[in-house]
Protein: Outer membrane protein OmpK
Amino acid sequence: MLSRNFSSLAVIMGVLAAPAAMAEQKWSDASVTYLNGNKYEVGDDSRQVMTFEHASGHDWGTTFFFMDYLMSDNGTKEHYFELSPRLSLNYLTKGKLVPEGHFIKDVYLSGTMEGGGKATNYLGGVGVSLDVPKFKYFNVDLYQANNGGGKDNDQQATVTWALPFQIGSAEFLYDGFLDASTKADDHAAETNFTSQLKWNMGKQLFHTKKPVYVGFEYAHWKNKFGIDGVTEKNPSFLLKAHF
Structure:
């Protein structure tokens, strides 16, 4: 059963990635983020994190990639990455699946590959993009996870959002994600709610074309890494530049 699940997820990832070779790109964005927090759980409590992110939209769907490089005060260095392509079913049906102007903007086949160190996880499932007033985007994905490193498989729901707003001439962005995964024999159910509140100081102070944000991130991660009773409540200083 494990090998069949792995093969199915690998096929999904391949199908999702294949259209990129002949894609019409509609938009793309890249950024680098610096975080500094001292309330981490599991390992050293004080860490600095450098994150590279790239997202793009195509006629066939979307891609999102990020890589974290974590540096702990005790000298430990780690990395973690995720690659998440989504294939639009509206694209495959030539716009017939979801009517224009509907609350559900699109339905996707979703995949994610995530890893760091020795373990790599593969997730496959379905997702929707919702038209929520005032939000730049609001996405919901449901996954079956094939976990590496000997960890039992589980299911995961992921919500991502971005809410821009203004106070006077100042531009702000509140965005983030919620990951909720089910329990299994060898780990507890997890909930990771991480969000960022940031001010576009680049536009207001330096008149940059791309946003340069300053603000903070707050992570509330219940049963971190599936460890029952370990809950991380970590605020971090944030500096983020888009290019």
Q: What stands out?
A: The helical segments are 2-17, 89-92, 201-206. The radius of gyration is 19 Å.
